[in-house]
Amino acid sequence: MTDDSRRSPRIGRIALLLGLGLVVCVIAALAFRPWIERFLGPPAVRQGEAYTDPPGAGLSAGSSAFDHGAFDRILADIVDDQGLVLYDRAATHRKELEAYLAGLAQADFAVLTRDDKLAFLINAYNAATLLLILEHLPLASIRDIPADKRWDDVRWDLLGKRLSLSQIEHEYLRKRFADPRVHFAINCASLGCPPLRAEAYVGARIDEQLEDQARRIHGDPYWFSFRDGVLRMTRLYLWYRGDFIQKSGSVLAFAAQWSPALQKALDAGGEPTPEYLPYDWSLNRSGAR
User: Fold this and answer.
1) What Rg, from alpha-carbon coordinates, does the chain have?
2) Residue 41 confidence (pLDDT)
3) pLDDT 10s digits, 181-200
4) Is the dihedral of CA 207, 211, 212, 217 positive or negative?
5) Regarding predicted confidence, which is higher, 33 or 167?
6) Residues 281, 190 contacting (CB under 8 angstroms)
7) 31-35, 89-93, 219-223: the lowest-pLDDT one
8) How many other C-beta atoms are found inside a 10 Å radius of the C-beta of residue 208?
9) 186 near 102, Cβ under 8 Å?
């Protein structure tokens, strides 16, 4: 028997073992995907209310509110009924958007009420993301933008600092406001994201606006459904599960606020295991859904 003939069975066995190992790895990855995503997802934060209203804030109409009228007019013109963006039209507003962001950079954040601060930061995130997309069109997805120019690019002048989109989201919106409904308000320019409102957020109506966003998410099977005992949820509930647990004790308890059927199941002692819906990173261009 030649060396080659002795070697061939060994090579075959090794190849078979490698193939079986690969199959096992793939199966394990699929089975543990939710845990993997949770581990590799956004950073965990300890939520808390960091802001109290400064003395005299809100005593006279408009005295402590930043005027988001410019962004409101832009959104009213470019956002369709589904919360998607007419980007060709948005491109005609680029100079106005840049001017609005420049105004945010000069604003005195300290004098704003707590609710105005929350509206300010949500608008800042959404306006900056919109400008980021306009700077890189044509695009199929925000993830087509180089990583160092995307969420972690420290380029946005705000609060007397230079911040990244990630910092605005994780260090300010999540850590300094105990309201996970912000996840239904900030928009990452993708179809999987919650819809963009055709209006700016304002402190005087922020609770009403966030509540409307939450109802909209939980009333649309694209993000949430609970039928015949089957619970399907946006992956936001997976990635930011710690935020929802801190607020309501569990992810299901938080979602049940806008799902009477789920609340009824919980009251009856049930605890359905959620299926997390695919997250579509395609650009949230009008007509894409």
Assistant:
1) 23
2) 73
3) 999 999 999 999 999 999 99
4) positive
5) 167
6) yes
7) 31-35
8) 10
9) no
What tokens appear for 230 in the block?
């089957």
CA distance 183 to 213: 10
In the chain, domain spans? 10-40, 69-210
Helix 69-78 × helix 94-106 angle, to 10°? 150
| Average pLDDT of the chain, as a whole number | 89
Which residue's entry shows tokens 């507003």?
93
In the predicted structure, residue 27 carries a pLDDT above the cut 50:
no
Contact status, residue 274 vs residue 232, Cβ threshold 8 Å: yes
Other Cβ atoms less than 10 A from the Cβ of 240: the count is: 21
Q: Is the dihedral of CA 178, 233, 140, 70 positive or negative?
A: negative
Closest CA to 224 of 215, 235, 234: 234
- Structural tokens at position 275: 């299926």
Tokens (6 digits) for 97: 């958007």
